[in-house]
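Reviewer 2 asked us to include a model.

Predict the structure of this chain.
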Amino acid sequence: MEAIKIEAKKRTIQGKANNAMRRGGTIPAVMYGKHQEPVSLELPESVFGKMYSQAGESTLIDLTVDGKTHKVLVQDVARDALTDRIIHADFHAVSLTEKLHTKIPLIFVGESKAVKGLGGILVKSVDELDVECLPQDLVHEIPVDISMLVNFGDFIRLKNVTLPPGIAVQHLHGEDVIATVTAPRSEEEIAALETKPVEAVGEVEVIKKEKAEEGEEGAVAAGEPAAKEAPAKKEEKKK
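Predicted model (structure tokens):
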């Protein structure tokens, strides 16, 4: 895979001045690392956005600043809460001789007979893997072949996934399930799910009524009137 490259320049402005820079189509960024002093950067939003869609956070990038190239990963991206535009980025400079910890997404490929032929539902237990590796061994994604899911109840374990050379998975074991396929819900099950909230409301009303009656009985037992009764009408005297 050809190296992904991007160029940035050092940033001299800070604070609120960054907002004016963003309005002009440039975003602030920072590069830091174990052997790298933090450096404030700026680069075009459109250029970074295109690069980020290709690399994500698990692909090594050649970042050039003032003519010097650094091997980096995108560590974090901040977005505007309303517009979803990228407003800041962090680059993590890495050493090619030191292992790093990161996450690599899984991509499910192939065709499952249980899903396509029988109408089953693919249930993904894991979407990404925590890994340890040297920077040059990083891959953008790890494929998972679902063609082995032939019948309902079949599953794929981590040990069934072919890992790229140099990749060591953390926090999971070979027997851990990555994905499985379940039978589709019947019309009766779907109807039951749709009516369940209504039944739940009825149950709540019954519980409330029972608690109210219990409260009245407790009050009577304590020698207190459970509720004030309406005064009885006096009989009219016969004339």
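The chain has four helices and 13 strands. The chain has two domains: 4-96, 101-182. We have added this to the supplementary material.
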